[in-house]
Amino acid sequence: MAQKRPFNEGRRHFKKNKKQKTAAVEGSSEEVLLVDVRRLLEKARVGDHEETTRTLPEQWSEVELTINELSSTGDGLAEKEGQVYVVPFTSPGDCVSAKVVKHFPEEGYTLTDFLSVKTPSQHRTETPKCRYFSQCSGCQFQHMPYSYQLAHKKTIVEKAYANFSGLPASAVPAVGETIGSPLQYGYRTKLTPHFDGPPMARKDKRAGKKVIWEEVPPIGYMRKGTRKTMDIEECPIGTEAVERGLRRERERVHREIDKYQRGATLLLRESTERVRKSDGELQGSVDGKMEATDVVVEDRGEWVHRKTCITDHKATSTEYVEDFRFDNPAGAFFQNNNSILPLVTQYIRENILGPAKSGNEANGHEPAMKNLIDAYCGSGFFTITLSQMFSNSIGIDISPHSIESADQNAKLNSLPPDSTKFIAADANHLFSAIDTTKFPPSETVVVIDPPRKGCDQNFIRQLLAYGPERICYVSCNVHTQARDVGWLVGGVEGEDGAVLQGLYEIESLRGFDFFPQTSHVEGVAILRKKGDGAAEEEGGNGQGVAADSDRTGGS
Ligand SMILES: C[S@@+](CC[C@H](N)C(=O)[O-])C[C@H]1O[C@@H](n2cnc3c(N)ncnc32)[C@H](O)[C@@H]1O
């Protein structure tokens, strides 16, 4: 059985500092960093570093370090005399100067501020496009070539499964190459910069006084390693329409700051109006030019896309992915990098039914997968883009607002209501609501795309009890994904304490780069029920379950 153990793994080996009673959140950066620190210390053969007597440099002193490796959190790690120094904005091989910020002696690491490069690594080849790079906490990788970023993200997936799935290496297939984003800058369709209230705002408010702004505060993102907001005038990972919106919103806040009683988060969400070129009026005014101050016009073959930036949470934003249209309240969740979405949907279509049952060929195979259940469906992105492959599709989301949008989106895309349905419900109660005569598990594929914290253990138990033929697990946190997949493959403790056997094997695993220049990677894992053609595929396309060799390579 795959245990809950892996998420404690990073801490288990360190004596806890008495003051640090709070456990790190499962799958959090802190947890992931701890595991990488411990692995590096093991590699450096430091042995029991808790017993090592080390003299650590004083806080705020400057240290010179050579970066050994990149952590899954995107930070450089440098081992020196039995202590790991965490240095942001660096690459393996960099020799850098850094300022000591905080020691965690029990855990064996020290947080630092990056100061300067003494000798650059061979992976430090790019000139960052953002003038705030190495101060802003948003991006970590602008100094590295894109191919290196993609290769690193593959190792993040590998390490996640090696360290957090609780599975033997033989149960984890070779991780595929990371699929890159067609746009590596100018891709983010949503940004949410913020500003803080004046220091006395709370006290003034309690005293019934009007809040006084002595100056316009910085509007932007957190300065790396601090809780302070830094002023950001431009963000080159945002789309052009969003960049325009940022400038406009900043000007507005500068004009209207006195209307605010406290700090605020601003919304910048791209919205697209699609106009057929033959409709005339826009012909000739295309090719990414600004048609008017706030409108970016893009040539899309027979269409013209007019892109604007919405700042009202409740206003409707429209996005096109392939030929599907999605309308959402601008403040609601929708994927943030439209350029990569067609690659993801295409990949899932090609793999969701398995190598022999892809796409339209599926109907010729028995048992054909006729049904789709999209747990955590949001406004219907996967249900709608995949529904043409299935006779019945159902999407479930806990947010009634998302389900309203999903219903609306199904209509916008002319999907028949008798075959594509959505229900507002907790995924934990999903399987009691499913009619198994309509959705027999042997003919059903389940797509899972939960929030960063992953699935509830209860959901996993119910999924195992239902036992769909295939599962496609999409996740923005490959660490919690690895834990959940570990349970589906290796089994999980039932509510009564008895072991529920794992039913699945991992057919394929790879990352998609939804967020270039950052350390985030979206994982897509395809699982099939054990015994469903595993043998015939082994050794076939290199994506089958590995033979008994250590291929996860996470340590
Ligand atoms: C990462 S989003 C994915 C949305 C969708 N698949 C998409 O691509 O647009 C996660 C979704 O899970 C939903 N969610 C969170 N907890 C849930 C639960 N217990 N049951 C059902 N849905 C939940 C959220 O409302 C959110 O829409």
Automatic annotation (TrEMBL):
The keyword Methyltransferase applies. Residues 61-102 form the TRAM domain. Residues 1-25, 531-555 are annotated as: Disordered. Keywords: Methyltransferase, S-adenosyl-L-methionine, Transferase. One of its GO terms (molecular function) is tRNA (uracil(54)-C5)-methyltransferase activity, S-adenosyl methionine-dependent. The active site is at C476. Residues 12-21 have a biased composition (Basic residues). S-adenosyl-L-methionine binds at Q335, Y376, D397, D449. This is TRAM domain-containing protein.
